[in-house]
Write a structure and sequence with these properties.
Layout lengths: L5 E6 L2 E6 L10 H16 L5 E6 L4 E3 L4 H4 L4 H20 L5 E5 L2 E3 L1 H8 L2 E5 L3 E3 L13 H9 L1 H10 L3 E2 H6 L5 E3 L4 H12 L4 H13 L7 H12 L3 H11 L10
Parallel strand pairs: 2-3, 3-5, 4-6, 5-7, 6-8, 7-10
Antiparallel strand pairs: 1-2, 8-9
Helix pairs in contact: 1-3, 4-5, 5-6, 9-10
Length: about 260
C-alpha cells in the first residue's frame, strides 16, 4: 500500500512507522491522519508484526503539532467534527490496538504530536526532545485527547500547569513527571525501542492484547477495570498460549507463543 506522508518498514516482527513531512516538521494534517489510520489498521492484521514503533523523520521533530493552516478558518461545527474524526480514526484507534505501540519521540512533540505520542502505549524520548501542548496560545484547547490522557500520565496539577502555560518541557522533565518511560541519546533511540519490542515479543500476544484492554478500561467512563481484568484473565485460560506458557514453565524451557 502506498502512503503520501508516512514510511513503513518491517524487520524482526517489528513495524516502524515514520511520519514523513520534514518540511512541515512532520505536522499532522487530515491526509497524514488518514495515512496513519490505514497503516495501523493494516499492521494490526499483519501476523508478521508483533510490535509497532511510531516516530518522525529527521532529527528535529516527532510531530510538531497539527497543521494550523488547514483549520484556521473552521466553524464550530467543523472544529467539532475535526476532533471527533481524529479521535475515532487515529488517537483512540491506537490506544485500543491489541498490538503494543511505542512512541519514539525524536524531537519536538507539540500539540497534536504530543497527543499522538500519548495515545501510544508508552513513550521513549531522545535527549533533544521537547514536549508541550500550546493550544491555548492559539485560542484553542487540546482536541485530540490531551486534556484526558495528560492528567492520566502526569497527574491533574501538572497537566493543568502544562496546558494553561502552553510551555514546552525537556525530555528530562518529561521523564521526571512520568510522561516518558526512558530518555536516550537520539542516535540510540530506535535501537533502544527495538530492544524493548524484542522483550515484549517473548511473551504471549494474546495476553498482551488483553492486558492493554484491561489497563485502558480503568480510564474509561462506564467501564469497571477490575471486571474487565477478571473476564480477560478467565479468557486466557482457554488459549493455546496459556497451555504453551505453563507447559514451557513446568518443562523449564522457553515458550513458543502463537497468539492463539
Amino acid at each position: 500500500m502506498n502512503y503520501e506522508n508516512i514510511l513503513i518498514s518491517i524487520e524482526n516482527n517489528t513495524a516502524t512507522i515514520t511520519v514523513n513531512r520534514p518540511t512541515k516538521l512532520n505536522a499532522l494534517n487530515k491526509d497524514t491522519i488518514a495515512d496513519l489510520h490505514k497503516a495501523f489498521k493494516t499492521l494490526a492484521k499483519n501476523k508478521e508484526v508483533a510490535v509497532i514503533i511510531l516516530t518522525g523523520s529527521g532529527e528535529k521533530a516527532f510531530v510538531a503539532g497539527a497543521d494550523i493552516a488547514e483549520f484556521s478558518n473552521f466553524s464550530i461545527e467543523k472544529g467539532t467534527e475535526l476532533a471527533a474524526e481524529g479521535h475515532e480514526k487515529l488517537f483512540d484507534f491506537i490506544e485500543n490496538l491489541k498490538k503494543p505501540v511505542i512512541a519514539a519521540i525524536n524531537g519536538f512533540a507539540l500539540g497534536g504530536g504530543l497527543e499522538l505520542a500519548m495515545a501510544c502505549h508508552f513513550r521513549v524520548a531522545s535527549e533533544n526532545a521537547k514536549m508541550g501542548l500550546p493550544e491555548v496560545s492559539l485560542g484553542l484547547i487540546p482536541g485530540y485527547g490531551g486534556t484526558q490522557r495528560l492528567p492520566q500520565l502526569v497527574g491533574k496539577g501538572r497537566a493543568m500547569e502544562m496546558i494553561m502555560t502552553a510551555a514546552m518541557i525537556t525530555a528530562q522533565d518529561a521523564y521526571r513527571i512520568g510522561l516518558v518511560n526512558h530518555v536516550v541519546p537520539q542516535e540510540e533511540l530506535l535501537a533502544f525501542c527495538n530492544s524493548i519490542a524484542h522483550k515484549i515479543m517473548k511473551n504471549s500476544p494474546f495476553a498482551i492484547g488483553k492486558a492493554i484492554k484491561a489497563i485502558n478500561a480503568n480510564f474509561k467512563e462506564g467501564k469497571n477495570g477490575f471486571e474487565t481484568e477478571i473476564k480477560a484473565f478467565g479468557k486466557c485460560f482457554g488459549t493455546e498460549d496459556f497451555k504453551e506458557g505453563t507447559t514451557a514453565f513446568l518443562e523449564k524451557r522457553k515458550a513458543n507463543f502463537t497468539g492463539k
